[in-house]
Predict the structure of Ribosomal RNA large subunit methyltransferase J.
Amino acid sequence: MNYDHHHHAGNAADCVKHLALSLTLQALIRKDTPLAYIDTHAGAGQYTLGAQGEHLHGVSRLWADRRSLPHAGAWLKIISNENGDGMLRHYPGSPVLAATLLRPGDRMVLCEQQPEVATRLRKAMGQRAHTSILSEDGYRALFGLIPPPEKRGLVLIDPPFERRDEWERLADTLIRAYRRWPQGVYLVWYPVKIRGTITRLWQALRKHLPAFTCELLQMPEEGREQLFGSGLIVVNAPWGLREALSAALTELGPLLTEAQSGGLWSLRCQGWPGPDKA
């Protein structure tokens, strides 16, 4: 696997997925009962940002406006707390972000297949109670973890999209997981790059489960094979999440747009009810 979390840390895709993760967890912890958080592709958990890197096109563009983006405020506050001197040097990945938002009694299971990255993840998580770190393939490990004893929770699926069969594996995993644990909340990130591939994923999923999708495009989609933006799939979204996510991504859109787009960006959201309600 060639994916370098450190180089990509804090990029526009991270901004979209971590904002969505923050909003989803905030919605889930409104209920008093404990929950389980499962991260299938956890990464190192914490990253140091250098003078170079994709964060220059992501979180670094938001930093100056972090106090004037109310719908993204809770997520940006966590990043601010990691950078107490006001200089953006540290970026919390999904495990650290989730650990900050979850309550002490909520359980975390973090899967990271690369041994050296898993070692850094253990260091980043410290001695947090009720936390397991598995050096396993997250897709396979998931089926031994659901349904969790807590009966409620969130699964984050954020693969690197390096394998030729990644999209097919993602669809198969999500469908099988939903069948095994239909009450669970699932949050998936995917790259908006080849529209036909995304359409096939949606078609496969809508036959089996209810979901909504949001895509934040940083440039017009013109048919070329390049990264246009980020997409999210949410299964069993908590009440109010769709509206909160749309409002927050609308704040981020103008700041994350690419120069070659002429300042153009777009947010597209749609959903389907599932096979039993169609």
In short: Residues 94 and 116 are 17 Å apart (CA to CA). The chain has one domain: 5-272.
